[in-house]
Amino acid sequence: AQSVTQPDIHITVSEGASLELRCNYSYGATPYLFWYVQSPGQGLQLLLKYFSGDTLVQGIKGFEAEFKRSQSSFNLRKPSVHWSDAAEYFCAVGAYSGNTPLVFGKGTRLSVIA
Amino acid sequence: DSGVTQTPKHLITATGQRVTLRCSPRSGDLSVYWYQQSLDQGLQFLIQYYNGEERAKGNILERFSAQQFPDLHSELNLSSLELGDSALYFCASSAWDSVTGELFFGEGSRLTVL
To answer: Distance (Å, rounded) from C-alpha B27 to C-alpha B93?
Structure first.
C-alpha cells in the first residue's frame, strides 16, 4: 500500500521569500502524485499533479513540483510567496486502480509573515 | 466553488446519537468519496461509491455506513457517536473511479460530539 510523509508540520516564511514543502512517498510502482491546498474553512483544491513525463510540473497560483524517483520525493516549490498562500498543504499519492483511493499526507501548515 | 455541496456545515450532537451527512457531487461526476479529517489522524479515506455501487472501503468503522442514491448524491450515516468521532468530514467527487482523475472537495461538515 502507498504512504506519504510530509516531514514539516508547520513552516513560516516571509512574504516574497521562496518556499519548498517536502513530500516523500512510498509505493512499489510509478505513483500518481498530487498536491492539494486547503484554505481556512474551505475544502481541498488541487494545485498540481504528476502522472508521467516531465518530472517538473507546473500548477496553479505559481506553484511547481518536481518528481525525483531516486529520492521518492515530490517537493512543492514557489519562488515568491504571497500572504494569500497561507494555508494547509497536502501531498497525496495514488495508484492506477479504481479500488485504490488517494492517500494523503498529514499536511504542512504554511504561515506567511510580513 | 468546487461544485460539491455538503450539508450540514456544522453539527453538534451528543454521544450515542446518530447523524446523517449529505453530499451532492459535481454535475456529471459519478464517483463520491468520503474522508474524515482529524488533527491526530489527518485525512483518512472512509469509502468510495461509483454510480451507486461501493467501490472501495477504507478505515470506516462498523458504526458508520454510506450509500449513493440514483441521483448520485451520497449520505454518510454515523451512529452510536463517540467523542472521538468529532472531526471534519469531507466529500469529494470525480468523473471516474480512477484516481487519475482530479478530486473535487466540498467544504466539509464539521461534527462535534459532546
So the answer is: 10
Chain B segment 60-89 residues within 8 A of A by beta carbon are none
In terms of Cα–Cα distance, which of B100, B99, B93 is closest to B32? B93
What does the alpha-carbon distance between residue A21 and residue A92 come to, in Å, rounded to a whole number? Answer: 13
Tell me how far CA of residue A40 lies from CA of A10, A43, A52, A61, A69, in angstroms. Answer: 15, 8, 31, 17, 32
| Number of CB pairs, chain A paired with chain B, less than 8 A apart | 60
Cell numbers given for A108: 504542512
A39-89, pLDDT tens digit by residue?
Answer: 988 889 999 999 888 899 999 999 999 999 999 999 999 999 999 999 999
Those residues whose C-beta lies under 8 Å from the C-beta of residue B35, and which sit 6 or more positions away, are A104, B43, B44, B45, B46, B89, B90, B91, B92
Is 60 exceeded by the pLDDT of residue A98?
A: no
Separation between Cα atoms, residue A69 and residue B104, nearest integer Å: 27
| Min distance B91 CA to chain A CA atoms (Å) | 9
